[in-house]
Amino acid sequence: MPETATTVDPRRWKALIFIALAQLMVVLDATIVNIALPSAQADLGITDANRQWVITAYALAFGGLLLFGGRLADLWGRKRTFTIGLVGFAIASALGGAAANQGMLLGARALQGVFGALLAPAALSLLAVTFTEARERAKAFGIFGAIAGGGGAVGLILGGVLTEYLNWRWTFFVNIPFAVVAATGAVLVIREPAGSRNPAKLDVPGVILATLGLVSLVYGFTRAESDGWVAGPTLGLFAAAAVLLLAFVLVESKVKAPLLPLRVVAERNRAGVYASLGLAVIGMFGLFLFLTYYLQIVKGYTPVVTGLAFLPMIVGMITGSTQIGARLMTRVRPRLLMAPGFLVAALGMLLLTGIDLDTSYPALILPGFLLLGLGMGTAFMPAMSLATHGVQPRDAGVASAMVNTSQQVGGAIGTALLNTIAASATTAYAASHAAGARSVDLLKLQSMVHGYASAIWWAVGILVLAAVIAFTLINTGHQGGGSPAASSGDGKGAGADGNADAQIPVMVH
C-alpha cells in the first residue's frame, strides 16, 4: 500500500459550509421540537401517555441505527450517504409538518431518525477525510465543534420563535431549506478522497445486534423515566441491551469485516473521548430541559424570550471552540483542553444550582450560561477532532458514528436520570414542607425549583467525572505537526505514545 499523501481539495472550505449546515440541522432538531410539543399535542389530540413518543421515536431510530449508518457511509461513499441522508431528512420533515394525526407525526419523527443516522456520521467522516493538515483541521473542527455543542440551544431559540410567531408545523418545515441548500452544495462542491471507501462485505449479524442493543438501551432509559428504575420492563430492557451488546462485541472480534472494528474503540484516547463526551452530554441535555421549564413556568418567560436566554451559552460555545480550542489544539495536548473545559462547564453548572423563585438572570443565570458554554466549546472542539484522528479513512464512518452514538446515548441517559432525580427531590420537598406552606401554588413552584437544583448538582458531579476521565485516559500529544496518522491494525492510533510528531500522512488506498 503506497504511502502517498492525499490531494488537497481546493474547495474544502466551501464544502465545510454545507457539512456544517447539515450538522446544524440534525443537532437543532433534537431540541427544536421540545418547545413546539405542547402546541402539537393540543392540535393533533396526542394523549399525555403518547406525548413522549414524539421525542422517543426519533431517539430510538437515530441512536439505534448510527453504527449502521456510519458503516454504510464507509461502504457506499460518504458524499452519497450524506446526500441521501439530506434528501430523506427533508422528506421526513415535510411529512412531520403536514401531519394530520398522531400516527403520521410519530412515523415522520422515526423517519427523521433513520435518515439522521445516515447523515450525522457521514458529515463528521467527510470532515475527517477532507481536512488532514493539522492547522486546517483545527479550524474546521473548531467550527464543527461549536455547531455540535451549540446546535441544541439554537434549536430552543428557533423553536420558540417559530412556535410563537408561526406555528409548531414550522419546526419541521424549517428543515427543508436547510436540507435543500446542503444537498445542492454537496453535489456541486464536496469531493471525497479517492480510495477512502471500505468495500468489505456488510456485517449483517453485527448490524442486527448493534441496532437491537442500542434501541434496547435507549428505550430502557426512556422507560426508566416513566415507569421507574426497578420496574420489570425497565430491567428487562437493560438486561436485553447488555446481552445484545456483549454478543455484538464477541461477534465483532470474530468476523472478518466487522461493522465496528474493535481497533476503533480499543485505542485509549478515542475511548476516553467517547466516554467523556457521553458523560458531558448527560449533564447538558438535562440542563436544557430543566432550564427551559424553569424560565417559562417559574420566571414566566415566553418561548421566544426563553430561547434568547440561552443565547449567551451559544456565544460561549462558539468562543470556546473557535478562539480557544481551535487556536490551542495544535500546540496543547487534548486532555489539557478537555479536562479544564469540562471543569469550567461544571463551575457554570454549579452557579445554576443556586436558582430560586426570584433569581436574577443577569446576576446568576447569565454568568452560569457563559461559563457553561465557554467550557463545553473548549472541550468539544479537540474531542470531535481526536475521535477521528488517526483512524484509517475506511474506518472514518464508524469512528464518526461512535461520536454520535456516545452523545445520543448520553442524551437519553441524561434526560431519564436527571428527570428521575428532579421528580424524586420535588416530591420529597413538597411532602416535607406541606404543613407550613402559605399556598399550594407557591409550594408547587418551590418544590419544582428544588427538584431542578438537586438534579443540576448531579450534573455538576457528572461533568467533574468527565474531566477526570478525559485527563486520565487521554494521553496523546497535540494534534499539530502534520496530517493524522493512519491507525494500524493493532489499534494504536496516531500519537498514542504521546508523541505528536510521530505521524504520517493519511494514505490513499
Can you walk through the features of this model?
- Mean pLDDT is 81; it is low at 1-6 and 482-509.
- The protein has 509 residues and is mostly helical.
- 76% of the residues lie in helices and 0% in strands.
- The chain has 18 helices and no strands.
- The chain has helices spanning 12-44, 48-51, 53-76, 78-97, 102-130, 134-165, 170-173, 175-188, 204-227, 232-254, 262-266, 268-298, 303-309, 311-328, 335-352, 361-388, 396-433, 440-473.
- The radius of gyration is 22 Å and the shape is globular.
- It is found in: Cell membrane.
- It is a multi-pass membrane protein.
- The chain crosses the membrane at residues 15-37, 52-70, 82-100, 106-129, 141-162, 168-190, 202-222, 228-251, 272-295, 301-324, 336-355, 361-388, 409-431, 451-474.
Low-confidence stretches: 1-6, 482-509
Overall pLDDT, averaged? 81
Helix content: over 70%
Count of alpha and pi helical runs: 18
How far apart the termini lie comes to 7 Å
Q: Describe the biggest sheet?
A: none
From the alpha-carbon coordinates, what is the Rg to the nearest angstrom?
22 Å
Q: Shape from CA axes?
A: globular
Strand content: under 5%
> What's the number of extended β-strand segments?
0
Category by helix and strand content: mainly alpha
What is the succession of H and E elements? Answer: HHHHHHHHHHHHHHHHHH
